[in-house]
Design a protein that fits this description.
heterodimer; A: mainly alpha; Histone, subunit A; 3 helices; B: alpha/beta; Amidase signature (AS) enzymes; eleven-stranded mixed sheet; 38% helix
């Protein structure tokens, strides 16, 4: 299955990475090579095999529903690009 | 002092032959003289290091010291350390002063170890040559025109150049073992879940595992004793009894059944590498070990499987870098989406973007089953191959890397060739098994060769025993690169 320039641009949009035409073209060449490698998987017989999502198939633990973290918002926001009144600032999204 | 192990430094500190402050000053001086030559450190903070050294000396003075108390250790820049710049090798985090400590850092600090700096690495641990770092490539101390391997290339080069006795690393597809092999040091990737991932910047969470890098197996054991342990804050951390990983070092290895997978000795392995590994196996036979042939029939598929699963997990993990809460934000943008896109386009390097695109693609509608689920099924087959092999042997051995260190730039333009350099290490991560690399000789150009030792789940103590007995019988691990003694 061949990757197209439109695929690259669509995926870049989904991943929120700006690409211009030249970058998309360059990425297409490299990604096509990588997908040729990945395609080797398709020949393998996996009938009856369950997917393995984790080493040792461990089940994630649950913990008691109690507060474990102290409020450190001032410390964490001290390294943010833009903060005002304890809130992270981003460009306006609602008119 | 530069060639001393943790074990001997620890003994000398306890005997008060020198203080931790003197030791740390000594290594900082070496780093200042030689660190730039190899570009192995991103951040040094002498004041912080010396403050920890003074605290360690106080512990020694009052008899409260542990084996690592006062010993300088470098941290791979993937581990968050409170108050330290923590970049993960990326422009995205080039201004990120961590507000908290990773579990590994916390545990090493609690044991009295001294953080002597943060080491260079491939950006977000994505690379096998340390050439994807925003802070420039690390150079291999054995030949500065070659790569040190990656992604823990800075840690490996720093230990190899005797700028620090030991360092931390992380291994998602070989990132501790391959650089250890290429720089002639020892490195251990523990069983998945043994070392907490809390505060270790995530790349592929089902594969990432932190571990020690040092010169000897014994030192790896001393480090792992501190680094390992259950941590509530990592949902995949395993609740197990605490172990002394050095407990079996002195055991004889006679009778050990070593499995040699025929796939590890197929075409594509450099003849010098195969020869050094075969000689290492011969040494084990002299120590009374038995050799059996085993097979890992699906190993060739580990690279394609990995390049579906790791990018898929990375595309999700790296979505947190959006220029809102910390790290880099693009200086100019039109609206919120544009801010995300420009921030990520400018903040990530080419390899990281490539992997995010692969991951986004394989997880996208219509491709999920064909790629992601198919890869997860193959992951199980690859893991089963090891289970099968361990019915016939106690330990598996082979080369860590098919070649010795390659030249800077040699594979940088060809991602597929770069990915294939991890052909022997990736399957171990997919299975979640422990793996290590120890030095076992040199090629014709004088570059080190690594012997990979793969154990069954939770057999770290046995693996360290196997490595230690080899290191008692050989001296490859104590050989030093030329030119590390500085100008004067």
């Amino acid at each position: 299955m061949a990757l197209t320039l439109d695929d690259v641009k669509r995926v870049a949009h989904l991943a929120r990475i700006a690409v211009d035409d030249a970058e998309a073209q360059a990425a297409l060449g490299q990604l096509s090579g990588i997908f040729r490698l990945i395609e080797q998987m398709q020949a393998a017989d996996v009938a009856g095999i369950a997917p393995m999502s984790h080493a040792q198939d461990i089940v994630l633990r649950l913990r008691e529903d109690v507060v474990t973290e102290p409020d450190q918002h001032a410390l964490f926001q001290s390294i943010a690009p833009q903060v005002e009144a304890d809130l992270y600032l981003v460009p306006k999204v609602i008119e | 002092m530069y060639n001393a192990t943790i074990k001997s430094l620890s003994g000398d500190l306890a005997a008060r032959k020198f203080s931790s402050v003197e030791l740390v000053e000594y290594f900082l001086k070496r780093i200042n003289e030689l660190g730039k030559k190899y570009n192995c450190f991103i951040t040094l903070d002498e004041e912080k290091s010396l403050a920890q050294a003074r605290a360690a000396d106080a512990l020694h003075a009052t008899g409260r010291a542990q084996p690592l108390t006062g010993v300088p250790i470098a941290q791979k820049d993937i581990f968050c350390a409170k108050g330290w710049l923590t970049t993960c090798g990326s422009k995205m985090l080039s201004n990120f002063i961590s507000p908290y400590d990773a579990c590994v850092v916390e545990r090493l600090n609690a044991a009295g170890a001294v953080t002597i700096g943060k080491t260079n690495m491939d950006e977000f641990a994505m690379g096998s040559s340390n050439e994807t770092s925003h802070f420039g490539p690390v150079k291999n101390p054995w030949d500065i025109t070659t790569v040190p391997g990656g992604s823990s290339g800075g840690s490996a080069a720093a230990v190899a150049a005797r700028l620090v006795p030991a360092a931390t690393g992380t291994d998602t597809g070989g990132s501790i073992r391959q650089p250890a092999a290429l720089t002639g040091i020892s490195g251990l990737k523990p069983t998945y879940g043994v070392v907490s991932r809390y505060g270790m910047i995530a790349f592929a969470s089902s594969l990432d595992q932190g571990g020690p890098m040092a010169r000897t197996a014994e030192d790896l054991g001393l480090m792992l004793n501190v680094m390992a342990g259950f941590d509530e804050r990592d949902s995949t951390s395993l609740k197990r009894e605490a172990e002394d990983y050095t407990r079996d070092l002195a055991q004889p290895v006679a009778g050990l059944r070593i499995g040699l997978p025929k796939e590890f000795f197929a075409e594509g392995v450099a003849p010098d590498v195969a020869k050094a590994v075969e000689e290492a196996v011969a040494q084990y036979k002299k120590l009374g070990c038995e050799v059996v042939e085993v097979t890992l029939p699906n190993m060739a598929l580990s690279v394609p499987v990995y390049y579906v699963l790791a990018p898929a997990e990375a595309s999700s993990n790296l979505s947190r870098f959006d220029g809102v809460r910390y790290g880099y934000r693009a200086p100019e943008y039109a609206d919120l989406i544009d801010m995300y896109k420009k921030t990520r386009a400018q903040g990530f390097g080419a390899e990281v973007k490539r992997r995010i695109l692969i991951g986004t693609y394989v997880l996208s509608h219509g491709y999920y089953d064909a790629y992601y689920i198919q890869a997860q099924k193959l992951r199980r087959l690859i893991a089963r191959d090891f289970t099968e092999a361990f019915r016939k042997c106690d330990i598996i051995m082979g080369p860590t890397s098919p070649t010795t260190a390659f030249r800077l730039g040699e594979k940088a333009g060809d991602p597929v060739q770069m990915y294939l350099s991890d052909i022997f290490t990736i399957a171990v991560n997919l299975a979640g098994l422990p793996g290590m690399s120890i030095p076992c000789g040199f090629d014709g150009k004088g570059l080190p060769v690594g012997l990979q030792i793969i154990g069954d789940y939770f057999s770290e103590a046995r693996m360290l025993n196997v490595a230690h007995q080899y290191q008692l019988a050989t001296d490859w691990h104590m050989r030093m690169p030329p030119g590390i003694l500085g100008e004067g």
